[in-house]
Amino acid sequence: MKILVVDDCRVTCTQIANILDQAGYPNAMTVNNFEEAMAVLAKSHEAEAPVDLIIMDVEMPGTDGIAATLTIKSHNDYEDVPIVMVTCHDDEATLDRAFAAGASDFIVKPVRRIELRARIRSALQLRREMVKRLDREKELERLARKLERMSNQDGLTGIANRRCFDDNLVKEWVRNGREGSPLGLLMIDIDHFKSYNDALGHVDGDSCLCSVVSAIRSAVHRPGDLVARYGGEEFAIILPNTDYAGAMAVADNIHANLSKSGIMHPDSTVSCSVTVSIGITSSVPTCQTTPEQLVQAADRAMYQAKQSGRNRTETICLPPSDELRQ
To answer: Mean pLDDT across the chain, nearest whole number?
Structure first.
């Protein structure tokens, strides 16, 4: 493990380093002041080979050991590194200040071999336990993030699922309402998808869904836009700060992307390739309207597109607030 010795007395540094070497801890680093110690800590951290233990003299010119301990412990990157203080005085006041600053242990000069080895073993064991705890915490955080992603992601297509859609719609509704910006919404349904599944089977049907999602995602470019699987062969796109013209441009790009992809549909009455029907609405959120009303409007527009012959886009304006109250 990596040990740093900080002492303005070079003889003491050499003595401690020799004892550590004989105890099985070779190559201890030695510096003579606080500034050099901080440089070593920073360089070791950047190299992802952090210092595991600091042995530091209490009395040093400039920044003394107690002030140095306070500074080191104030850094998030070094706060878990044990510090063993080396002091000429074992009076309670000095030791109390050292422990209050964050020291883990102390050794009284002159340094005795057996005592140093015992205290180093204890401090390094503490460090090992700290590292294990930090590793466990990082792993738990990683798993929590993974579970969070999985809980918000559609397993087949990799886009947001219905739960994620619902959560983001409410958040964007509030945010866009606060900013007075229009919130656009697209509802998208694959035309005659049941016939596609009946003709080619569910494996090809899953492949078709993924291809359609690729065409939809290619039409959306802003980081804040959300593409979600709403259910079955139905998808939705939340477009913050987007009016009807902007939403229509996205819909046109989706139709164009699908036309280029040429996904063959053997039983479609609309086209020889897979097409979609799209419903659009856009509104500036107010206290008199709700996210559910935005979804209902886009959903009605999508069914109008299907009833009008499919493979097209229809729009519906959200009704005025007084009509909504009726």
So the answer is: 91
